[in-house]
Design a protein that fits this description.
Elements: E1 3-12, E2 20-30, E3 35-39, H1 46-53, E4 61-66, E5 69-70, H2 78-84, E6 85-88, H3 101-111, H4 116-129, H5 146-158, E7 164-168, H6 176-192, E8 196-201, H7 204-210, E9 213-218, E10 221-226, H8 228-232, H9 235-240, H10 247-257
Parallel strand pairs: 3-8, 3-9, 6-7, 7-8
Antiparallel strand pairs: 1-2, 1-4, 4-5, 9-10
Bound molecules: adenosine-5'-diphosphate.
Adenosine-5'-diphosphate is lined by residues 12-13, 20, 22, 40, 42-48.
Amino acid sequence: MSIKLEHLNYVYSAGTAYEKQALKDVCLEIPHGEFVGIIGHTGSGKSTLIQHLNGLVKATSGALYYDGKNIYEPGYNMRELRNQVGLVFQYPEHQLFEVDVMSDVCFGPKNQGLNPDQCMECALEALKLVGLKEKYYNSSPFELSGGQKRRVAIAGVLAMHPKVLVLDEPTAGLDPKGRDDILDQIAYLHTQRDMTVILVSHSMEDIARYADRIIVMNKGEVMYNDCPRKVFEHYRELEQVGLAAPQVTYIMHDLKEQGFAVEPNVTTVEEA
Ligand code: ADP
């Protein structure tokens, strides 16, 4: 399920005093199965961009092709698109509202029209994938830690079997251990499911560890769109826009490309 954006522009509050062009002539192609990192400062257009990917926001101009079909063509099945492109918003735990974890994760499959047994099956698989211990399945989401809540929220999207998983700053507000756990878990998910992963972050360190490709956004435009090694070659320009990462990040990535074992150890991902 490839995604292609052609000369996409998006303007907030067009024609008013608050008019703001958030995306400028964005052209991108994301093949199925890639792990893509989108990085940029606050306000660079990352959130606006990803909200286009499942049709939540409609471009002011330009085209977006999903699996070869322009989603802006009349009659396009937006509902199906939303089933296929799962979006995990920033602080997704704010959207947990059911009485227990299991009901929360079943919510999406239920909306897709699955029967209770099928919903349960999808939810169980998703909760296992995100590494939440079984003893929490009947807990209220509000009794869980920040990292656990986030896992439940991600499971809620995974339970709908998306072909593309988009995560907006999934580590925001977590402590360093929680951050590493969630990122390792996302990398693990990518290996377990035939799924494109699009991870948004403002941290080059986070992105560089996992992404096959990095898209650097700056003031609404795509500044770079390449494999990490090629993007890192522009470290001076990245530094100038405040997106430098410690040298060790680049070295780690080079080692990985040369075949050294610097992959996350998924056995540490399981919650203690
Ligand atoms: P990022 O996710 O990289 O922080 P955003 O996509 O949220 O960037 O924002 C891009 C630009 O659009 C920013 O200048 C922001 O102020 C502006 N913007 C975002 N949301 C709105 C909105 N609802 N109304 C007006 N301007 C907005």
